Model the fold of this input.
Amino acid sequence: MDKVKVGINGYGTIGKRVADAIHQQEDMELIGISKTKPNYEAVMAQKMGYNVYTPSDKTSKMKDGGIKVAGTVEDMVNEADVIVDATPKGVGEKNKELYEKAGVKAIWQGGEDHEVAGFSFNADSNYNDAIGRDYTRVVSCNTTALCRLISNIDREYGVKKCRVTLIRRAADPSDIKKGPINSIVADPVKLPSHHGPDVQSVIPSIDISTMAVKVPNTMMHIHTVNMELKNDCSADDIKNLLAENPRMHYLEPGITSTSETMELARDLGRPRNDMWENCIWEDSIDFYEGELYLLQAVHQEADVVPENIDAIRAMCELEKDADKSKSKTNKAMGIGTK
Ligand code: NAD
Done:
């Protein structure tokens, strides 16, 4: 079978990681990435051997900055079978017309609304519903981690109700513009936070309420999770269930923080320190008055990357079996190798 040709529109935190992950897959070909500025990321993309495309009005700026321009974004879109749009929140929506005109499949990220694609995706939750689709939205980092956790537990024991508090990193490590730098922000004040409805955009049957605060940190999010289940089970049952999923990682003994988790990623030799898995404190998994409790950390820059790969496989009908697609993605990226 011919490889599926993929273009990445927007080569920032998410785009550069998805580009590398596509490059690792046997059934996909990265035809190029797009950049709007000739900055260090564009230079690195070129060093990686990736074709760099640019909006037509930025061509001379890119060439002046020493970037060899492969063509316009339109050229990339016309050449691709599927575009992964990883432009900043709100920009992706504006690109839809371009994708429609070219008749190319497109994947948006969690910063866009569900309506842009009309379908929100998580590989553990609704892979089969993505098969053959033209448009898909891979949900945000927080929603991805919650969907993984909830759908795995729901399939086995039934989730009656879920309550989550999200302690969110305020910005990504390379982000020099966002804050706060000395505050904890109720975000939002009015409840629920958007994360609960976002989970429901993937798994509509789940009863979930979420609250969120933003903290002055760039490393990871933490979720405090509480669930009422439909069927009886023990903490060990939950521990054994989650241990079977390569996209769940029990944190090594002694780790009590996100900083140690990122140090672990470095020790594991992960590219860009990426922890693609839900990072769960196994000892936090417990029942209190019949309700399940646990704590997980989420590497916001990384966990959506394998989901984009599985979304491409489903949409382009490269693999109709969700587990087989996830295994291919995991193997190519090194997920679950600990
Ligand atoms: P980013 O700002 O790091 O990267 C966006 C890239 O798009 C930048 O390189 C920017 O130069 C480029 N760009 C801007 N306008 C463009 C245009 N018109 N055409 C082509 N490229 C353009 O953003 P990000 O953090 O990677 O976020 C991308 C999407 O992924 C958003 O929807 C975001 O909500 C979502 N997301 C982000 C994270 C995260 O933690 N960073 C996690 C999950 C999902």
